[in-house]
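Quick note —
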Amino acid sequence: MRRTIGKYWRGCQSFLLPLILAVIKSLPKLGDRLTNGGHMITDILDLGEQTKLRGQVVVLGSGIAGAEVATYLARHGREVVVVESGRDQFDPSIQALNDVIFVGKRHRELDPDSYYHRYLPPELRGVSRVRQFGGTSNVWTGKWKYLQPSDFDGRLWVANSGWPISFADLLEHYRSAAKDYGFGDLEAEAIRPEIAALRAKLAAGGLKMSSFYWEKTPTRTAVRFGEEMRRSKNLHVILGATATELRLDDSCQRVTTVVCRSLEGRELIVEGEVVILATGAFETVRLLLASNRQLPNGIGNEHDLVGRFYTDHPKHHTGTLQPGSLTRQYAHELQYAPKPRFCICFALDDATQQEQELLEHVLYLKPIYEKPMDRLWRTLRGYPACRDGNGRVTTYRVKFVTEQVPHQGSRVKLGTEYDALGQRKLEVNWCFTDQDRRSMAKTLQLLTQRFAELGLGTFDFGNDPPCLETMTDAAHQMGTTRMASRPEEGVVDTNCRVFGTDNLYVASSAVFPTGPSYSPTFTILALARRLGQHLLKTTPISTTKLHV
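Predicted structure written out below.
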């Protein structure tokens, strides 16, 4: 019996083996899928050793800016490669590549027990920059706010202030993004009768207010764009690939190659006609400075400005407000829930800021609702009830967020320590000026006085008054490749192109010359849309497909 089976099997082998080999040979390889338009999201480990990939546009980073500009260009027929350091799932070993050396004020860091981001998994709490598909949108809270027209103006009392573009240059992009993403209409909200009436009362007392839109479910670009990226005929996403170097042509004015590596030792070469750095204010600096093979000072750094003018928004959030009569009257406008909804924030009016030579510091109020003992305490003290649509408010949690003066001494640069990829870690010197300290103290004094005079309420900061040295960062890294009209004043031009290059762009809050004290995300998105439109005019539709 065994001899019969063995003889039968040897006979089957003679025709089965060639058939199996023929089937395997007929399966499409990665390169075949790319050239035939079957694009995808691929891990660098699924590529061959020392693979070379080419597209028209190379986008580094898959966060808000990177995903927006990449999908926009792909929809309009441009061949796009997106390179993302992280993977679908959060990986602590990849996240560790974000580690920096603080030589000035420290930022908050990973802390599973942190009160920040309690809605997130413990491994993401306190993290301000995320290496994962979707970037830092994976931890974002979902607050969308325009910059105001005056935010683009230079202020004589604030050195290095002002943008080389205006509010009008971004308005159409704010509007189109709000429509496409399904945000509420901030312009309509601004003229709603209740808001207009409150604004008028505040203006009479030297205060101003503005609105922001808070999503019910914060935008996560991996969710919003993931399926589109998988199905796009013009888009290929590579995960697990960290960009470590930009290489230039012989003129040193054009980026020809992006060198990418993984922690597993895999290397990838990506070539493109246009390269966009959508990696945030820190990693953009590291890549520009580390790309010093041909230019010793790094790319875009002829005037030693890459990494300088670093700002964030120091914030304090342990104070309380005992509501007064005006707050009780407009309590419904101060609700934080249910979402989605519009919320408001307060600041000193522009005339006061100019007269007192102050920065734009902003105050947010979060209602804290009564518990049974709170009600007894209020009754015994004779305080009237403050009600909104969710119940009785006992107090408001006060979040005080500050702007800082952009100055060259606050900077990010390459340090002397190395990460797991052998790349130099960043050294961050986040520091403040005497003007920052004086402005914050005076603003707090005037806000306290005017809140009481208008009937908004009285503050209580207890034993922890706002102080720059003890306040935390807001994860709003800005200014390290600031936008300017001339290379002597900044790193990118008004189209976000790096000075001294023909095809290298930055899409992040790194280009902000100044940043008032609220979320920069909507402006990052608007700038990414504006950049996408600019590149459509300068990058013709490809007649060839992505290829390996």
